[in-house]
Amino acid sequence: MVSSVAALLVSHDGARWLPAVIEGLTSQSTPVDTVVAIDTGSLDDSAQLLERAFGDVVRTPVSTSFPAAVALGLERLREQGATSEWLWILHDDANPDPGALAALLAAAADDPAADVLGPKLREWPSLKRLLELGVTISGTGRRETGLERGEYDQGQHDEVREVLAVNTAGMLVRRSVLEELGGFDAQLPMFGNDIDFGWRAAAAGHRTLVVPQAVVFHAEAAHRGVRRTPLTGRHTHYQERRAALFTLLANASRRRLPWLVVRLFFGTLLRMLGFLVVRSVGEALDDLAALLNIYAHPGEIRAARRSRARTADEHVRSLLAPWWLPYRHGLDFLGDLLTAATNQAQDVAERRRIAAAEHAPASAVVRPRSEEDELLEDSGWVVRFLTNPIALLITLFVVAALVGARGVLDSVAGGGLSPAPVAVSDWWHLYGETWHPLGTGTAVPAPAYLLPLALLATVLGGSPGAAISTVLLFAVPFGLWGAWRFLRVVGRLATPTGAPRWVLLWGATTWALVPVACGAWGDGRLGVVVVAALLPWLAHAALGFADPDADRRWRAAWRAGLLLALASAFAPVLFLFALLLGLVVVAAAFLIVRGAGRDRSVWGPPAVAVGLVPVLLAPWWIPAIQRHAAEGLLLDIGRLPGPVVDGLDLASGRLGDLGAPWWLGAVLAVLALLALLPRATRIPALVCWIVALVAALLGAVLALFSFDLAAASVPTGLGALVVVLQGALLVAAVLGAAGAARELASWRRAVAAVVAVVAAAVPLAALGWWLVGSHDAIDDGIDTDIPVYMVQSSEQGPEHGILVVRGSVDDGLTYTVRRGDGMTVGEDEVLALSAEDRDFSTTVRELVSRPTPAVVDDLGGNGIEYVVLPSPADGDVAATLDAAAGLVQASAADRSTRAWQVDRPLDASGLDGPTSWLRVVLIVVQGIAILVVVVLCLPTTNRRRTA
């Protein structure tokens, strides 16, 4: 007996595929009895094509979902009185092979228990790639086909087997079963209704078979984004992910549901991270939106679970994807990333090899491979390393640098570096607080550089001291690496083949020692050290502004902006320099290149890079201005006051009296002047001099200002400009050396040899001075002059403060308040920029002159437990405090140090302050902005985006 079949063909804007689909449907070797076409508000000729082929068409609004369209088709069959046993569901982009229906019916006849059957789906228009042979779903909501990516159909899967579900494109289902199960779920308007229906069918005891002998060619127009409808919108991935989550939660067993809810939450976060790694921000946000949509409407899940049968869960479990499959996909993803990185590195190496071959001398002769060549190749990288003098010298330099920095392996403090806090949580609290219980309480924001330091300390196991030691230990090698990369690219401005490797070695090692030679490293000026390590990486990223490809220029903007923000967090003056230099460069581009102003991709990337800095650092500079601490935008970080830098220091690359001998910087300036002589390097060397002059001009202007803080008068921080100036001169010298190697006549080579010897002495002398002659202030530590038991007491809470009074009546008295573990990195700047508490200053003034019980009460109310006069204590002040009621003499290790304990109840409520919700919002915005910028810095690797 031949089964009767009615076809339901659902269409929406499918005119490009419908002619072939109609031909495939009408040319079936086993024809269908009835065809009902449903058109959902097509704007093209779909409805007309269907009318010409099949007569009457069910026309519905564009908002009609796929389940509703199938239900309308069933209703039309009832109106027509059709009694078809089977329903064949087709999409307007699914073209069936002429024998597809016959194969499906034959499989149904062979297995009478089969109620749902599906064909083999192949890609249209390629016709050979496999798309699906039945589908299932994993515990994370991934649609599983069991096929390899891009797998071709070679008959390797041609066995009829039971599956969880089959695609609705070509699904053959018993009409009675479809009606029994209530059709497709209306909560799944476009995607995922096939898996949900198959799961419900299996749970109700029905069998679903995939029949590979039946072939349907599917364009997957909605999934691939070729066709958009009001139901999919612009976020196809959101609809697919929502459907997957709904299907899992609506059909899972009651026992697995709690675990599934937790797993999907954390799995979504992990998926988002994976999407961000491959720069697919849209997909990551779609995943999050889908999760929030499902979890925000639990009533929909409860209603769906009540309507589903629960009689065959064991049978369904055997049809689901194995539990380990998501973990294998995770390993595959990591493997794909590693493969992509390897391929990219190989492509870069191949391009460099081709470029070197193109610039090779025409007289070069390719000799045949000898046995010695084969031996060297078989010996591996060890032989290549040992036979490469540049690699050996770089390794020797790095080892020497690590030996020179070995003192920072322990906790360091001294000079401009305060001690590190005990735990990284102290940094996180300081950064997140809007009011700090420091001194007498302050709302001055924590410095911006605490965020990267806290992140680094967290990665290193929660030790702030390890973070600071890591920065100081690897600053020189990291700067060497960045300088080598940058100078290798810049060297091509002098000669097509780039600067000689010996010149690159000299330039990279000299640059790496700039923070050492200027004195920043030994004095613990962490900001200058970090800027020196980051500057060549920043300059390398900024070279992308000149890339011919506009997309690469914009990507360079994000990378340069992120690095500039990071460097400006450690050296705020660097932002002013970048802004000034950007204006100069853009103005020069407008003057030199006609029409540059009309091309946004020319001036836009530098503007974006500079504009990102105030956005990414907004939680620091906006509250700083709001709290009258804007001076911090022009100061070097660390303990104040910093070194005074004059014009000679700028030219010689030294921070005041710190650093190596001045003549090392003078030699670099002379070499940069000589770089103007070779014709090939005159223009790029002049550009370097312009950069140096901009830095020098800005430094000269800023040197005219000083700031009167509560504790002292401090100069403007010019450490970053010293580093920039040295970097510009160094690049000019490298360019000059590369150009001189090409142009010098034979009689000038003796002069060049003398210059080369003098130049080589610069890094050697700086390295030798560091290893032998320098004195590192960071090894000296910070003397507190406070008894140990008082320090231990102050660590119990902010109400156990210590008032430290220094000086004498004749010379003037100053005071500080110590709380917790003392003034640590980050806290020193907050306290230095905080305005004087005039009320507390009045209390201290009365305390040391004519203390009354009310004054001592004020000390307890401000959380002061001890009063200390460090050695040498002023006798008049000590006598006054001895006579004060409410002060009890306390012991001190040093007899010339005097101390008293406040005999009053201690209260820390005076340190409380208001919460700044503005800064809370700014921190949230900063976190989002950093995440977005980091993703935009990554290369585009998303396949859908690339296609």
From TrEMBL:
Q: This protein is called what? A: Glycosyltransferase family 2 protein
Domain of life of the source: Bacteria
The record's SUPFAM superfamilies line, in alphabetical order, gives:
Nucleotide-diphospho-sugar transferases (SSF53448)
Q: Which PANTHER family did the record assign?
A: GLYCOSYLTRANSFERASE, SLR2126 PROTEIN
Q: Which organism is it from?
A: Nocardioides aquiterrae
- One Pfam family named in its UniProt record: Glyco_tranf_2_3
**Any stretches that span the bilayer, and where are they?**
257-278, 390-409, 453-481, 502-522, 528-548, 560-593, 660-677, 684-705, 717-738, 750-772, 917-938
Q: Which UniProt keywords apply?
A: Membrane, Transmembrane, Transmembrane helix
> From the record, what ranges are coiled-coil?
none
